[in-house]
Amino acid sequence: MSVLLRRPLVHLLKTQFSSALSRSYHSYDHLPYNPYTPSQEKILSSALKYVPEFGFVKQSLVQGCRDVGYLDTTHAVFQAGLFDLVKFHLYRERTKLAALKPQIDEEEGKSIGKRVRRYCIERLKGNELIISKWTEALAIMALPSNVPLALEELAKLSDEIWFLVDDKTADFDWYTKRASLAAVYSSTELYMTQDNSPSFEKTWEFLDCRLADVHNVGSKVSSLASWATFTGFASINLLKSQLSRG
Amino acid sequence: MAVKLPEKFPPLSPDARQFLSRLIRVDQAGELGADLIYAGQHRVFKRSRPSLAPLIRHMWDQEIHHHKTFDDLQNKHRIRPSLFSPVWKIAAYGLGMGTAIMGKEAAMACTLAVETVIGGHYNNQLRELVRILEEESRISRDGQASAELRALAKTVSEFRDDELEHLDTAVENDADKATPYVILTETIKTGCRAAVWIAERF
């Protein structure tokens, strides 16, 4: 019995946790790895067109299959069911961001903060059409079996934005940057579902506040680090001078 | 009508991608360590044995170049840096300073141990890289593997040669006269192997 219970957990940790940790090598000479086959992509993108009307429900998937000429039952090929529809939305909106790079580089200038903000806004605008149904997607993502992959998608989005703003972090800050942006993004995304202001003005305000918080904490951490380094060296020098006096 | 061949190579296999991301992660962490070992040794020798400082400085400069190269590769190919980079920093600087305080021979024994492990490690990576390159050249139009992977193999083999040169320098500078030589080198070698194992994965 315990073996039966343990196996799925081990399997879950092995496949999902390790895939989240082993982010892949990004190649320039090789075609990118596409997780979807052309027919899966066709069905899922036509299903997403029904989401504003029906929501993240089976009916959208069924309609999607029907629209591109498959049998209604074809939706069964998506093993994760509705989560596959949610994941496809996340994947599609994330991969769209790269095409905006030339435009954003030109319009937002060199400031990393401004460009990060702009990418967040562009990504959030991807949820605009389905915002009234987005809480359904959040509920699907919050199911325990879906959490690891949903978090992985969030991590990938955060990584994508830092990559697109040409961030060159090579140490532990790589993790703090990605984690803090992911926290900012996900809280703003949640805020947006409750926002009734015209063209989501309140959401962008909320985003600015969250980004400012992260910036403040970040500069406090780095001033703490330089204080610690200074104090460390000062105490070593003090010790040395005391020792040399004998 | 001539068939237009795709300009890019087909997607890398999951195994190849995992191999390449581990390669860059562990080598970045390794070069970070090497950089800081020599930084630690230089800090001590600058005062205690100024005659030795230029030799250490030369090796240190090479490691700085290696470290920078792998930092660039890590960013370019979007590899997650090692989760333990703060640990590697402290451990490497401590190892460098510690062995340098023990004396010239101990510092050279440390270089010998580290560079032996790293040289062998680079060789293992090269063997696998060459296998991937051969596979790619078979499917390529012009019989050549992708420029990206060829450049990576060249970098790894250059750096291996530099590390082996440091190994020779250590032997010429009485690394084997350190006491207790075997305990010191074997401890450092084991530590390096453990660090390689961890840095590849985490």
TrEMBL record, chain A:
<dbReference type="InterPro" id="IPR013718">
    <property type="entry name" value="COQ9_C"/>
</dbReference>
<keyword id="KW-0446">Lipid-binding</keyword>
<protein>
    <recommendedName>
        <fullName>Ubiquinone biosynthesis protein</fullName>
    </recommendedName>
</protein>
<comment type="pathway">
    <text>Cofactor biosynthesis; ubiquinone biosynthesis.</text>
</comment>
<dbReference type="Pfam" id="PF08511">
    <property type="entry name" value="COQ9"/>
</dbReference>
<keyword id="KW-0830">Ubiquinone</keyword>
<dbReference type="GO" id="GO:0008289">
    <property type="term" value="F:lipid binding"/>
</dbReference>
<feature type="domain" description="COQ9 C-terminal">
    <location>
        <begin position="147"/>
        <end position="218"/>
    </location>
</feature>
<dbReference type="GO" id="GO:0006744">
    <property type="term" value="P:ubiquinone biosynthetic process"/>
</dbReference>
<comment type="function">
    <text>Membrane-associated protein that warps the membrane surface to access and bind aromatic isoprenes with high specificity, including ubiquinone (CoQ) isoprene intermediates and presents them directly to Coq7, therefore facilitating the Coq7-mediated hydroxylase step. Participates in the biosynthesis of coenzyme Q, also named ubiquinone, an essential lipid-soluble electron transporter for aerobic cellular respiration.</text>
</comment>
<keyword id="KW-0496">Mitochondrion</keyword>
<dbReference type="InterPro" id="IPR012762">
    <property type="entry name" value="Ubiq_biosynth_COQ9"/>
</dbReference>
<keyword id="KW-0831">Ubiquinone biosynthesis</keyword>
<dbReference type="GO" id="GO:0005743">
    <property type="term" value="C:mitochondrial inner membrane"/>
</dbReference>
<comment type="similarity">
    <text>Belongs to the COQ9 family.</text>
</comment>
<keyword id="KW-0809">Transit peptide</keyword>
Automatic annotation (TrEMBL), chain B:
<dbReference type="GO" id="GO:0031314">
    <property type="term" value="C:extrinsic component of mitochondrial inner membrane"/>
</dbReference>
<feature type="binding site">
    <location>
        <position position="163"/>
    </location>
    <ligand>
        <name>Fe cation 2</name>
    </ligand>
</feature>
<dbReference type="GO" id="GO:0046872">
    <property type="term" value="F:metal ion binding"/>
</dbReference>
<feature type="binding site">
    <location>
        <position position="63"/>
    </location>
    <ligand>
        <name>Fe cation 2</name>
    </ligand>
</feature>
<feature type="binding site">
    <location>
        <position position="115"/>
    </location>
    <ligand>
        <name>Fe cation 2</name>
    </ligand>
</feature>
<dbReference type="GO" id="GO:0006744">
    <property type="term" value="P:ubiquinone biosynthetic process"/>
</dbReference>
<keyword id="KW-0472">Membrane</keyword>
<comment type="pathway">
    <text>Cofactor biosynthesis; ubiquinone biosynthesis.</text>
</comment>
<dbReference type="GO" id="GO:0016709">
    <property type="term" value="F:oxidoreductase activity, acting on paired donors, with incorporation or reduction of molecular oxygen, NAD(P)H as one donor, and incorporation of one atom of oxygen"/>
</dbReference>
<keyword id="KW-0496">Mitochondrion</keyword>
<dbReference type="Pfam" id="PF03232">
    <property type="entry name" value="COQ7"/>
</dbReference>
<feature type="binding site">
    <location>
        <position position="31"/>
    </location>
    <ligand>
        <name>Fe cation 1</name>
    </ligand>
</feature>
<keyword id="KW-0408">Iron</keyword>
<keyword id="KW-0503">Monooxygenase</keyword>
<feature type="binding site">
    <location>
        <position position="166"/>
    </location>
    <ligand>
        <name>Fe cation 2</name>
    </ligand>
</feature>
<feature type="binding site">
    <location>
        <position position="63"/>
    </location>
    <ligand>
        <name>Fe cation 1</name>
    </ligand>
</feature>
<dbReference type="GO" id="GO:0008682">
    <property type="term" value="F:3-demethoxyubiquinol 3-hydroxylase activity"/>
</dbReference>
<comment type="similarity">
    <text>Belongs to the COQ7 family.</text>
</comment>
<feature type="binding site">
    <location>
        <position position="163"/>
    </location>
    <ligand>
        <name>Fe cation 1</name>
    </ligand>
</feature>
<keyword id="KW-0999">Mitochondrion inner membrane</keyword>
<keyword id="KW-0831">Ubiquinone biosynthesis</keyword>
<feature type="binding site">
    <location>
        <position position="66"/>
    </location>
    <ligand>
        <name>Fe cation 1</name>
    </ligand>
</feature>
